[in-house]
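Next up, a specimen:

>
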Amino acid sequence: MTENQPRRPRTGRWMTFAVLALAGAMIAISALTSRGDDLRPDRNTELIDLLAAESARNNQLAARVSEVQHEVDELTRSKQPGEVPGLTEAGDRAGMVAMRGPGITVTLDDAPDSLEMPGVDDDLLVVHQQDIQAVVNALWSGGAEAMTIQGQRVIATTGVKCVGNTVVLHGIPYAPPYRITAIGDPVLLQAALDSSEPIRIYQQYVAAYGLGYSVKPERHVEVPPFERSTELTYARPLATS
C-alpha cells in the first residue's frame, strides 16, 4: 500500500462488528429465557390438553367413587328394614339411587354448520349454558323427580359451564346436541316448558337462526344414580404470616 492510496475507513468495520455482537447477545438471551420452549406457546392447545387431562382424571376418580358407592349400597342392603329409617327417600332426593318412570326429553342443538348468515355473531348460533339451565329450571318447577344431562345425573351441586363451543358437566366436556331428560308427569313438565320466559326467548332464536329445540314425551325413563364425588371445593384465603 502506497502513501497516496486512500485508507479504508475503520468506522464501518466497527459498526458491523457491533451489530453482529448485539444480534448474538439477543439470540443468547432468547435461548436462556425460553429454555428450549416456544416463547409464544399456543394457548388454545394448552387449554385443550389441560381439559383432556382433567377429564381423564375425573373419569378415574368417578370410577373409584362408583366402586365405593357400590360398597356402601351393599352395606345398606345388608341392614334389616327399619334399621335405617328414611334412607331410601333421602337417597332419591340426593340423586344417589337409580329411578324409573315416565318423563320427557328436551334436545337443544347449535344451528347447522351449513347455515350462512353474514353479519350475525357466531355466539347467536350456538347453545349456551343459560339455555340448558333454563330447561333444567323449568323441568324442576314442573315437578321433575330426577334428571340427567347427557346421561349424567343432575343433583343439587351440579353446575353447567361453557368452555369454548362445548359444555362441561362434572368436569367432562360435551358437544351438542344436548339432551336433558327428566322423570315426572309429561303433561306437567311440558306445561312448565311452555310457560318459561327464558325458553320462549330461546325459541325466538330457534326461529330466527335455526337453533335446535325438540321435546319428546317418554313412557319409560331410566335415570342412573350419581356416582361422582359430592365433596364441595371452594376458595380458601392465603395464610398470612
Remarks:
- DSSP finds six helices and eight strands in the chain.
